[in-house]
Design a protein that fits this description.
Radius of gyration: 21 Å
Order of helices and strands: HEHEHEHEHEEEHEHEHHEHEHEHEHH
Number of helices: 14
Number of domains: 2
CATH superfamily of the largest domain: Glycogen Phosphorylase B
Helix content: 25-40%
Largest sheet: 7 strands, parallel
Strand content: 5-15%
CATH architecture of the largest domain: 3-Layer(aba) Sandwich
Distance between the termini: 45 Å
Strand order of the largest sheet: 3-2-1-4-5-6-7
CATH class of the largest domain: Alpha Beta
Length: 402
């Protein structure tokens, strides 16, 4: 495998980065950052981060795991990437085996390119190979109950500032934070496109509900979510003016949906898209969103769309915050489905609210600060592990934008 250095050709997507002085640019001109995309939601998340880091003069190397709709989303967003490894299903033994196999698959490319830092949003395989090769690692998280890699921890952990201390890392000085949601990295770039209705064959007169099933293959899955999902579809199918757009998490789940709900699909009241859609656009033109947890819930909350969670695993700090502030409604029982879900048209504004959201610049600032601290540590000491002294990037005045 050869190292893939990406030069993104997307001028319409680029934004002006914060400018650095010439001495900073000179010192970092040859710095190399390896980003490993480990799941579907990480494609839109890392896209603006890649662009900002590239605009800052850094060299980007991108790899990705062929899981769920990662490949299709990379093509949708025109983000070239080296595909390495695949998904091994929900069996725990196979998950562990798959991580080991992918670690070995990443080894040649990691050894050849020797990045200054390796970044992911939870890639265990990247962490393992980087620990073996002595490559500094930064892992992002926004769900504190995800499975950890045992005794191995990344050199740096970056997470939303509402997640409590000690939830992600044993060492407080290895934790970097950002305000808001990870979805706030890319949601401010969104621009509505009315063509979504014609793409789906839905009339704007219908009440549109976007639904995502639970992640049945995830380690945190609770079967109660499947009960709530089925009852949700029964409620929605009882309303003639409702059109349900159901987004499966993988091909296997899509096949199961088409088999279990064939009558609802054949009637035209439920659609299961066969190709990736612009998720933010679909959410924006939905009257409400119901999801089995994860990114879609938080994307809807970031856009201000009414959203309900049927996730029944351990609730993370981010979702608790959104629920407490009224931006997300938790569904905990079949009774809640009938009492809490409001099947009414959303009073949609002309466009999303313009918000000065500092999340992107804060994340990029954290990456740059770590790279600068490595240079400073090498100058001050010959020890292989410099003391962490990271300049604080500018933070927002409030923890989470409302």
């Amino acid at each position: 495998m050869s190292t893939i250095t990406q030069e993104l050709d997307q001028p319409t997507r680029r934004r002006e980065p914060a400018r650095l002085n010439s001495s900073q640019l000179t010192s970092r001109r040859r710095k190399k950052v390896w980003i490993d995309i480990d799941n579907s939601p990480h494609v839109p998340f890392f896209l603006p981060i890649v662009e900002e880091l590239e605009n800052q003069g850094l060299e980007l190397v991108l790899t990705a795991r062929n899981i769920y709709q990662v490949r299709e989303l990379l093509e949708f967003f025109h983000l070239p990437c080296k595909m390495i490894g695949r998904h091994y299903g929900k069996n725990k033994f196979l998950k562990v085996l798959g991580t080991i196999v992918r670690t070995l698959q990443l080894a040649p490319i990691a050894a050849r390119m020797r990045p200054d830092i390796a970044i992911s949003h939870g890639s265990r395989a990247q962490l393992l190979i980087c620990k073996a090769l002595g490559i500094p690692t930064m892992m992002m998280h926004d769900y504190e109950h995800s499975t950890k890699t045992g005794f191995l921890e990344p050199d740096w952990v970056m997470m939303p500032d509402v997640i409590p201390d000690g939830a992600m890392a044993r060492k407080a000085d290895s934790v970097l934070r950002y305000p808001g949601l990870k979805e706030d990295v890319y949601v401010p770039r969104f621009r509505p496109d009315h063509s979504i209705f014609s793409q789906l064959g839905i009339s704007p007169d219908h009440l549109v509900v976007t639904v995502r099933p639970p992640a049945t293959e995830a380690h945190y899955h609770n079967p109660e979510s499947e009960v709530l999902f089925a009852e949700t579809l029964r409620l929605l199918s009882s309303r003639a003016n409702v059109r349900v757009v159901t987004l499966p998490r993988n091909a296997r789940q899509g096949q199961q949906l088409r088999a279990d709900w064939s009558d609802l699909i054949s009637s035209g009241r439920m659609l299961v898209p066969s190709a990736p859609l612009d998720g933010l656009n679909l959410i924006w033109f939905s009257d409400l969103v119901i999801s089995g947890g994860g990114t879609m819930n938080r994307e809807a909350a970031a856009l201000g769309v009414p959203v309900y969670s049927i996730f029944r695993g351990k609730i993370g700090a981010v979702d608790r915050y959104l629920a407490e502030t009224g931006r997300l409604i938790m569904i905990e029982s079949t009774r809640d489905i009938h009492e809490k879900i409001k099947l009414v048209r959303w009073d949609r504004p002309e466009k999303p609210e313009d918000r000065n959201c500092p999340v992107l610049q804060c994340i990029v600032g954290n990456v740059i600060s770590v790279l600068e601290s490595q240079d400073e540590g090498r100058r001050r000491s010959s020890s292989p592990r410099p003391k962490r002294q990271i300049p604080e990037p500018k933070q927002a005045e409030s923890a989470m934008p409302v």
